[in-house]
Amino acid sequence: MAENKKNLVITEEVKELIYDIQNKAYLTGQAREAEGKKTYEAASNMQASDDDENSYQVRRSLANAFSSLKSLLGEYLSEDKTTSNNRMQSEIDNSGQLTLTFRLPSNYNNASADSLGNGIHSYLVDMALADWFAITNKEDAETYASHSKVSLENVKRALYKRSRPTRPTY
User: Fold this and answer.
1) Nearest-10 Cα torsion for 135, 136, 139, 144
2) pLDDT of residue 122
3) pLDDT tens across 59-71, in order?
4) Helix (H), strand (E) at residue 6
5) Cβ atoms of residues 38 and 29 within 8 Å
6) CA 13 to chain centre
């Protein structure tokens, strides 16, 4: 019997991911300052900016999160890559698009596609923030690492959705 698989392509805009990372880092810094847990200077250092040194670290963290995600979901990914190096992906470095092509069973429920895409976005942002805060504010690193685990579970839940079989008609 022929294998009936369907492809599902998820595209993540790097600009959107970077914005979300920077915005959450900013809001977290502001919240810690308002709570009196951080000085103005410490809160300022928590906030990721577009400055080269910050931008590189955020993009490197995003690249690591993306590689990790591909490894975790590899069972369903269709990729023909045969080599690897430690250079940053040009898609991340140039604010392009990150694309994942999933090869899924024919009964995959396409209604879960948006949930899958949103979960991937959340996972990438949370992992990058956990990495960023491991450097700038260790207390919040644990929070975002925990968030990433929840996001990954949501991704898997969306990935494993199947449609109910339909009775044949004669």
Assistant:
1) -70
2) 98
3) 999 999 999 999 9
4) strand 5-13
5) yes
6) 11
Amino acid occupying residue 98: L
Half-sphere exposure of 149 (CA within 13 A, CB side): 5
Q: How far apart are CA 51 and CA 137, in angstroms?
A: 19
Give the per-residue pLDDT at 15.
Answer: 94
The residue ranges of every structural domain in the chain are: 5-77+90-159
Which phi and psi (to 5°) does residue 162 adopt? -130, 150
Structure tokens at 15: 């600009």
**Cα–Cα distance for residue pair 127/34, rounded to 1 Å:** 25
Q: Do residues 106 and 4 lie in contact, with contact meaning Cβ atoms separated by under 8 Å?
A: yes
DSSP state of 105: E
Cα(78)–Cα(57) distance, integer angstroms: 28
The pair of structure tokens assigned to 101 is 């092509």
**pLDDT confidence of residue 86:** 65
pLDDT digits (tens, 9 = 90+) for 113-169: 999 999 999 999 999 999 999 998 898 999 999 999 999 999 999 999 888 888 889
Closest CA to 46 of 144, 158, 114: 144
